[in-house]
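Predict the structure of UmuC domain-containing protein.
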Amino acid sequence: METSLRIQETMRLPLPLQEQFSVDEEFFAMPADSPLFPDPIEAARKLQAKIWDTFRIRCCIGLGPNKWVAKMTNAKAKKTPGGIVWWTEEDIPTQLHPLSVEEMF
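Done. Here is the predicted structure for UmuC domain-containing protein.
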């Protein structure tokens, strides 16, 4: 629990809009096309590196236009080399729609 709280605090510094989902999951706002996050994938890589360097814990990051899509992309990120998956609004018909109901969060 202590490590979870420390990781949350580490994420809170660059990502002030966040919501804890469980002991090991967070949702955070990282608006695409924002001056703070011009490249969401690079921002996710930096966050992964920071968590690894500080805690020696690997993490997967799912990015999407809303929490539900982010949760779905996180499930895919767990099976993806590099551990990062990003679906934009345009990706939803090709990435989400073919999934079975059993794969839905």
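The chain has a mean pLDDT of 85.
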